Amino acid sequence: MTSKISKFFKTKRSEKISQTEDNGAGAASLSIGEPFNVVRNYHVNFDKGTGEFVGLPPSWRNLLDTSDISKEEQKAHPEEVVNSLKTYAKSIKRKSSSTKFMLVATTIRESDEILDSDKGGDKEDVVFDEDDKKADASSSSPSPDKGVEEVTDGMAQMRQKEAEDEADGEVVARRPRTQKPMTDAEINNALKEIASPGDPHAKYDVQKKLGAGASGSVVMAKQKASGDVVAIKMMDLNNQPKKELIITEIEVMKSYRHDNIVNFLDCYYLENELWVVMEYLDGGALTDVVMETIMREGQIAAVCRECLSALDFLHGRSIIHRDIKSDNVLLGMVGAVKLTDFGFCAQLSGDKNKRDTMVGTPYWMAPEVVSRKQYGNKVDIWSLGIMIIEMLEGEPPYLNETPLKAIYQIATKGKPDIKNEEKLSDELRDFINCCLDVDPDRRGSAADLLQHRFMKKCTALSSLKPLIVAARQATGH
């Protein structure tokens, strides 16, 4: 069985044919421009005799050597190793230092359009072939038949016969799609149209900084006229690698209001900066609570119920959140649990009810996401299951592994191990199993899980207040 992992790019190389005359006779000559969108086409094989990969790009070899993925694991799951390498190397775009977990936490920020249309630079296209007979240590690229033109630098190849490539399942180039990624000017114009007129400084008095994330800082502010407290997300537009996600976030927050979603209030476009005014929740993020306190099952059930209510609302409108984790669940001292951070939201349409974009944060990702398969809204349910482990243990599984090893573990292991799982109630164990089923078709839906018997254990949301207070005392916030 041959498994092929291919990267798709939009732009085909163009050729210009000019006609010249030589001694009165017409002769055709071919003018070939400089290659662009170059693809380094590697064919990777696993030699079961030596237990080694053949044809890995050097950078991938270095990643694998430092990944803590053992030789035994590589031999048992060679395709998953290559898939994990591809996921890590191609999709992880930003790394940020995380003081919470005292390690480098990796966040993936890609829209579907960006994934399909990387601009400029060389690209690596890896095809993995499990057939030992095709492993050839002397070559890491296919033979130049079937219409493959070898570029003179020996590093790139370009397909000439698209029909043959499609038949082989090895499409390296395709015709551009009609919908192109938005330019910076188009994005800025769209943000200006969404924003309210006027200067927010005249309306709001900034009190203190609440935190900072990948897309900007968040401050607490008071509305000067009413004295109402709000949260303002301030985004420096010059430092936003994926500005399209900002439009997505604002449009989702403006269009959909729910008791378990942080409410959008307003937004303002300043020079190179966007202010998004949101409802303020004085209890902070769930993260401090899970890290600093011990949650009882009834409190875990209550948090899950509120999150599932929000997910049921979003999924019913064909929206996937795609970044469910404790950092994106905000708490209120009077008893409130709300989802926030909609920058990764995906809108599913009738003709595309599955997604294949790598987004979110690796430790909470579903197996179908890290394996770069198409997925639906059940990825949010898997992430909720991982968040339950956070509430039980204070952190998600594999946090102390390298990101590449974590991705590999998610792709191969299935439901992660849970410490002292035998001490959990039957209801909670079954609820977790419903969330963390590797098969998305068997995984529970938000609507189904709201009817699960574990929900009967829910305590009042006011029971979260002592945990919030204890977490604040522990962190000094």
Secondary-structure map with pairings?
Elements: E1 16-22, E2 25-31, E3 39-47, E4 52-54, H1 58-65, H2 71-76, H3 78-91, E5 94-98, E6 103-107, H4 112-116, E7 123-129, E8 148-150, E9 157-159, H5 162-168, H6 184-194, E10 204-213, E11 216-223, E12 229-236, H7 244-255, E13 264-270, E14 273-279, E15 284-285, H8 286-292, H9 297-315, E16 319-320, E17 329-332, E18 336-339, E19 346-347, H10 367-370, H11 378-393, H12 403-413, H13 426-435, H14 446-450, H15 465-475
Helix pairs in contact: 3-12, 6-7, 8-11, 8-15, 9-11, 11-13
What would a concise description of this structure say?
The chain is an alpha+beta fold and 477 residues long.
Structural notes for this entry:
Residues 1-29, 93-123 and 131-178 have low confidence and may be disordered. It is globular and about 75 Å long. Strand 8 and strand 9 (157-159) form a beta hairpin. The longest helix is centred in the middle third of the chain and has 19 residues, at 297-315. A 5-stranded antiparallel beta sheet has the order 10-11-12-14-13. A 3-stranded mixed beta sheet has the order 4-3-7. Helix 3 (78-91) packs across helix 12. It has helices at 58-65, 71-76, 78-91, 112-116, 162-168, 184-194, 244-255, 286-292, 297-315, 367-370, 378-393, 403-413, 426-435, 446-450, 465-475; strands at 16-22, 25-31, 39-47, 52-54, 94-98, 103-107, 123-129, 148-150, 157-159, 204-213, 216-223, 229-236, 264-270, 273-279, 284-285, 319-320, 329-332, 336-339, 346-347. The protein is α+β, with helices and mostly antiparallel strands and 477 residues long. It contains 15 helices and 19 strands. It is 31% helix and 22% strand.
